[in-house]
Amino acid sequence: MKKVIVIGGGAAGMMAAIAAAEQGADVLLLEKNEKLGKKLYITGKGRCNITNACAPEELLRKVVTNRRFLYSALSSFSNDDTIRFFEECGLPVKVERGERVFPVSDKSSDVIQTLAKRLKQAGVSVRLRTAVTKVCTENGRVTGVLLQDGGVLSCDACIVATGGLSYPSTGSTGDGYTFAKLCGHTITECFPSLVSLKITEPFAKELEGLSLKNVRLRAVQGKKELYNDMGELLFTADGVSGPLVLSASSAVTDRLSYGEVVLLLDLKPALSKEELDARILRDFEEAKNKQFRNALDKLLPQRLIRVIITMCGIPEEKQVNAVTKQERAVLADVLKGMRLHIKKTGGFQEAVITRGGIVVNEVTPSTMQSKKTAGLYFAGEVLDVDALTGGYNLQIAWSTGYLAGVSAAE
Length: 410
What we know:
The protein has 410 residues and is an alpha+beta fold. Helix content is 31%, strand content 25%.
């Protein structure tokens, strides 16, 4: 019987261990934390967005980095397979807005318990509080792993599923990059991704907690558009967050070193500038005897009014009936393109995922096996693959974990 060691008890590692064991391998899962699925526990704000129920081609479109590398993995274990897997394990799921899939219970702990139960049923041995310091090799082939306490465990194949650098408090501290480097692999530069963005504008502080729904956000660098989508945005004490911003961050995080990136926020995406001007005129007509600052409450949330007035430069005490056509045009421009200048991204401690990792052209996409070391496999966030928010990154973890597990057991 083939002996397989899986390093890392997160989503990819647990799936890899299950897949390898169900293929007939003798599997040992090593986790340095005191419990399995520590990062999985906090995903989806504790609800665990396990996958996305979109069509396969749409899922691939949501992959930001190295999409082609994932063809085989996503084909071998699709989002439909993920849903079937959990339901067959006795965990019913539901599909919410944006095709996001959650457990009916809304508890990530139920997802972890389901996986732990399946690990047990498959006969996987699990060792917690067991840190690995090195993957041992001989003549270009894996022979075992060296533990932090000095012990050596032998194996025929080893799957590294240690995550990236995001949420280091959950144990994602880049160990897998070290193991891979020692086995001859190249690691790309890593950045926090699916993360909040810090802006230079001081008004962020006074808007903290303000949530804007159905707005359009563009990210531009010079004349190049990096991102353009609609959704929900949240102001924080020093910047912006929310689903729309997290997705935008995946397009800008590795561009900031090349020059300034500006966010353009369209507060009224359903209206053209002409339609917006007509709307402003109607509001002004109803408030013709009011001052400018008191004529925007139908157009904007109360907390945003003072900021917009400052940005468009119209005196706030000016009578509405004295606001000129040119001033209205400036107001419309600000509402259709509120400029936010990115200072930096949030750090790894708050990033949902890591952008970067093990260079994928050094890994065989149809098996997840290293091209440098026989018997060495990789799965999940340790690889240089990432996607937008919405369950897509967990699907990458399930798919690459499953493929690595099946391949390692053969």
